[in-house]
Design brief:
about 110 residues, 7-stranded mixed beta sheet, 4-stranded antiparallel beta sheet, 11 strands, about 0% helix, about 50% strand
Length: about 110
């Protein structure tokens, strides 16, 4: 059974940075695509970034150049480095692997 556990969220001022982590278990992490999604208050869940198991990455245009997705296959962990955060980035951030979702971690960008 796949389990995804996110961490690293919190309150940060505009322009600040956070790094999210997603610890995965139960599947061959190095052989699957892993992604981050987010749900802002009152909005639908949206794609943020994906890390392909062959090394490719893809970003939502809204975060491109500010966010970096990476993975450590030895630690079965997915990361999302978020820089130059904006109030519009406020959301619950979810880790995704195929049909599986983590519980989410709250990111709030506010002064």
């Amino acid at each position: 059974q796949v389990q995804l556990v996110e961490s690293g969220g919190g309150l940060v001022q505009p322009g600040g940075s956070l790094r999210l982590s997603c610890a995965a278990s139960g599947r061959n992490f190095s052989a699957t695509n892993m992604a981050w999604y987010r749900r802002a208050p009152g909005k639908e869940r949206e794609f943020v970034a994906i890390s392909g198991y062959l090394g490719t990455t893809l970003y939502n245009q809204a975060v491109k150049g500010r966010f970096t997705i990476s993975r450590d296959n030895a630690k079965n962990t997915l990361y999302l480095q978020m820089n130059s955060l904006e109030p519009e980035d406020t959301a619950i951030y979810y880790c995704n692997e195929l049909e599986c979702w983590g519980q989410g971690t709250q990111v709030t960008v506010s002064s």
